[in-house]
């Protein structure tokens, strides 16, 4: 079977070779492309003979997938799959699996990196120190004792809740269903409205889909305290960026930490959140720790082996 890794996986070639050893041992041919392209013709050329494609966050839409006529499976080295045309894959009987859980710790830790950066003015303190400045005007706030709101309590949201409690926060959570194991640890499940009204920090951990698109818009932002901050390490589309920039610039909320946008980096300098007040931005890096990237390579390979054995895991369609 021909397996094509259609884009770089963010780890060294030695680590790639180590990760794919189990599928090569089964006699499969593996082709690894070390450059990223979004050119449709190039993607079709790369995937045209593939029976299995391994992809990270590169968009794979119908215009590419329909030309890969031998394709039977897509193993996604990512948690979210909104960049994959899953409906078309379902129509064509193409299996899609994701790499659920690979970046749980990485994303949760960056959420707190962003929260602390905003609360304690770390980027501004760094800039001031480099030009012989002082802490004047840069004294921030502690996490300890704050109300920390977690929107979405899947694996990442649950880990964020646990870390927030370790910081001494009171944790509020909103989710489609209550998680008794988190309640037992002291997490209080409330409505989204109540969470936004009460929380000092709101951290988003929901997938992007039809029900979460612009989940946080003008009305929701209007419920937040003026002293509150918003952290988004989920998907850019779950927040109305224009409205978030507006409330930040008007001082309606105190700050934001943003790792995800409506598009992948590079983010244009004209994007409203690049220029909004008290905003710390990172280039969609939450998932990308060295440990997480190697873990996901192992998961996507194992997805293929399990699928071949007739016991697929991490199944999306």
How many domains make up the coordinates?
2
Spatial sequence of strands, sheet with the most strands: 8-7-6-9-10-11-12
Distance between the termini: 21 Å
What radius of gyration results from the CA coordinates? 21 Å
Taken in chain order, the helices and strands follow as EHEHEHEHEHHEHEHEHEHEHEEH
The CATH superfamily title of the largest domain: NAD(P)-binding Rossmann-like Domain
| Share of β-strand residues | 5-15%
Tell me roughly what share of residues is in helical segments: 25-40%
At CATH level 3, the topology of the largest domain is Rossmann fold
The beta-strand count equals: 12
Output the number of helix runs: 12
| CATH class descriptor name of the largest domain | Alpha Beta
Instruction: Supply the helix-strand structural class.
Output: alpha/beta
The gross shape turns out to be globular
CATH architecture of the largest domain: 3-Layer(aba) Sandwich
* Major beta sheet summary: 7 strands, parallel
Average pLDDT reading: 97
Poorly predicted ranges (pLDDT <50, ≥5 residues)? none
Tell me what you see in this structure.
The protein is globular and about 60 Å long. The longest helix has 19 residues, at 290-308. With 317 residues, the protein is α/β, with parallel strands linked by helices. The chain is built from twelve helices and twelve strands. Helix 1 (13-24) packs parallel to helix 12 (290-308) and helix 5 packs across helix 7. It folds into two domains: 2-102 and 289-308, Rossmann fold (3-Layer(aba) Sandwich), CATH 3.40.50.720; 104-281, NAD(P)-binding Rossmann-like Domain (Rossmann fold, 3-Layer(aba) Sandwich). Helix 8 (180-183) links the parallel strand 7 and strand 8.
């Amino acid at each position: 079977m021909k397996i094509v890794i259609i884009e770089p996986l963010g780890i060294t070639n030695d680590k790639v070779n180590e990760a794919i050893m189990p599928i090569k041992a089964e006699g499969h041919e593996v082709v690894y492309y070390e450059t990223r392209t979004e050119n449709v013709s190039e993607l079709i050329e790369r995937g045209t003979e593939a029976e299995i494609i391994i992809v990270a966050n590169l968009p794979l839409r119908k215009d590419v997938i329909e030309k890969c006529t031998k394709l039977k499976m897509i193993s996604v080295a990512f948690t979210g799959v909104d960049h994959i045309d899953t409906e078309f894959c379902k129509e064509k009987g193409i299996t899609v699996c994701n790499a659920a859980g690979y970046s749980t710790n990485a994303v949760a830790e960056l959420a707190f990196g962003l929260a602390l950066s905003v609360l304690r003015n770390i980027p501004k303190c760094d800039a001031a120190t480099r030009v012989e400045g002082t802490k004047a005007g840069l004294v921030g706030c502690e996490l300890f004792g704050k109300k920390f709101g977690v929107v979405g309590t899947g694996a990442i949201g649950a880990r964020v809740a646990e870390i927030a409690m370790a910081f001494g926060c009171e944790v509020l959570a909103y989710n489609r269903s209550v998680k008794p194991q988190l309640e037992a640890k002291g997490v209080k499940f409330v409505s989204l409205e109540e969470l936004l009204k009460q929380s000092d920090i709101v951290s988003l951990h929901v997938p992007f889909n039809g029900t979460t698109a612009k989940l946080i818009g003008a009305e929701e932002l209007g419920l937040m305290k003026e002293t509150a901050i918003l952290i988004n390490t989920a998907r850019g589309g779950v927040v109305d960026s224009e409205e978030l920039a507006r409330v930040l610039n008007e001082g309606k909320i105190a700050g934001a930490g943003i790792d995800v946008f409506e598009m992948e980096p590079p983010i244009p300098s004209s994007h409203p959140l690049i220029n909004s007040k008290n905003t710390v931005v990172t280039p969609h890096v939450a998932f990308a720790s060295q440990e997480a990237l190697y873990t996901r390579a192992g998961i996507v390979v194992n997805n293929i082996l399990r699928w071949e054995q007739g016991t697929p895991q991490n199944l999306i369609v």
